[in-house]
User: Fold these one by one.
Assistant:
Number 1:
Amino acid sequence: MPPLLEARDLSKHYGQTIALESVSFEVHEGVTGLLGPNGAGKSTAIKLFLGLIRPTSGSAEVMGERPYESVESRARLGYMPETETLSSNMNASEFLMHMAQVSGLPPSHARTRAADILRHVGLDEERYRPIGQYSTGMKQRVKLAQALVHDPVLVLLDEPTAGLDPGGREEMLDLIRRTAHTFGISMLLSTHLMGDIERIADRVILLEGGHVAEQGELSQFTKETTDLLIEVDDHREEVAAALAKRGVTVVADGSLLVAQDASDADYDVIRDVIAESGARLRRLSPRRHRLSEIFLGPES
Ligand code: ADP
Ligand code: MG
């Protein structure tokens, strides 16, 4: 099976402007983050995979096919564009039904499909209101809904959290993650926000000035620290007290206990104390650095 997406020595120049210069990467199942500052080439890469533009050189393949040479692959992709593309007089229900019919579903199926998807993105109640009256968050959800209506294998999301406040951003990211899990649809999420990637991506491709700066599993970029995270089902207070008695100080952090700067000897003490306490251990692992500590850069 070829990868879902594959860029091979892919370049795209717009006249004198170099948007992408000989980039190579693969996108596989799951949620992949395409991270990079403005102008890095994220939208250009997405448009190449959609077949909206052609490479200057190299290739962009969707499941082994070149989208700019055949239209087949387009049906397997959903696209949530960065720009406002919604018609404001239509309501969400009409719009989704229209998109479902365009994708080839007969009217009766299109109606059911539209209703199901709108319920999934949380626009059940408002679906008969004109889109022009929607908030930014609601418009983003309609844009996501139309990208899902033909049951694609992979959805390309171009800056889906742009213009959202922190609450709306969290909701959108949760919805994307939930969609990926519920429907088994893979996602390529373009964003300039590391926080978005940290929250939902399994893998990350970092683009900078038209080049791939880094790529790999997210965990690869979030190095371990010397802090140990401890999560037990119960007896949390007893565990903390017993550890303090044995010389290991822990602080509570939400439902976790954190042993800062823990040595190997501390690790053994923690294991013993938990075993003696009868508490069920859910997790005992080093805390990882945040992505933003690894890639220094503006967070917004
Ligand atoms: P990103 O989505 O990461 O912000 P883009 O792919 O939109 O980056 O842009 C990459 C570079 O290509 C930028 O320098 C941008 O100005 C340029 N660019 C993008 N689209 C065009 C276009 N249609 N014509 C000319 N230059 C473009
Ligand atoms: Mg862009």
Number 2:
Amino acid sequence: MVSIRAVDVTKRFGQVVALDHVNLEIRQGEFFTLLGPSGCGKTTFLRTIAGFELVDEGRIYFDEEDVTYVPPHKRDTGMVFQNYALWPHMTVYDNIAYGLRVRKLPRDEIDRRVKWALKLVHMEGFERRRPHQLSGGQQQRVALARALVIHPRVLLLDEPLSNLDAKLRIEMRSEIRRLQRELGITTIYVTHDQEEALAISDRIAVMSGGRVMQVGPPEEIYLRPANRFVADFIGRGTFLEGRVLETDHELVVELESGLGTVRGVPSRSDRRISVGERVLVAIRPESFTVAGSEGYNAFDVVVRNISFVGSVKRVEAEAGEKLFIIDIPVEYDVSIGGSLRVYVKPSRTIVIPLE
Ligand code: ATP
């Protein structure tokens, strides 16, 4: 088990800055996810950790060892790709054994390890099949076994589930998490799917334009986004703008569009918010309630749309020409065009600095 440290890592491709002074520390045995839109630099970061890309600036450490210029085959990382990248002409057994043969391990040791890896991913009995005789999920299990069989110090997963259907993705992600916990292996996982990231990770780094926007556990990223980008990228929400009137134990914000004042708490930002500053107020759909009292923030909204999303009714509503997204209990009666009074606790009203 190793920890990984990227210090001021910058990587350019011509004019494109794929990684812009990235500083990240991934703890021993941690399941760490890089999350962000297409092109934000997730894959490039993973490839610099594996050693497939050399950084232009900065350093990479595995524990105390500086691996910045160590070639990939000496870094001991196991990588799994989106398209599995299995060799089509080789059997499952040979695909998994390949990395061990390259390392010139004795035959019985190879056999022992391949059997161990097949058992780990529940694929015993498939040794003689070729990749085209397997389902997508089975191919991904083989790809995982192939990465794990070399006993890597770090497991790197680049959107490993994106070719699978929705149900299988959910099954496979618990499977990956189980394996990772069982082996205690430090893992970096890349995805652009925020729900997947929230479900699987110990901590998440949200990236945009080659930069790290926020690092934290899933709850913190979701409930206390550090800036507008993170708030918007992770989940739905109501976003209001205003100016800070008071900063005591909570913040008091005078909202624009005649929505009155609200009390809230600061987001996980590095910067303190001061009186007079313009801010964004973010509220998650499930933070609203239809019952409240003193001490809550109240809004009178007009219902514009209602959709039933299984566990709740999701209401799109309007007040002061702002869009509100509100989850309410299924049994609660609302109608389009009707008015509704909703409440939010100050602790769920997140105040974000507007850079
Ligand atoms: P995706 O989710 O689409 O895979 P990503 O977040 O993994 O995106 P990267 O693949 O790391 O993003 O790409 C970051 C930026 O660097 C993009 O603008 C991309 O076009 C550019 N880039 C990546 N690899 C190369 C390369 N080999 N040559 C030139 N530009 C590249």
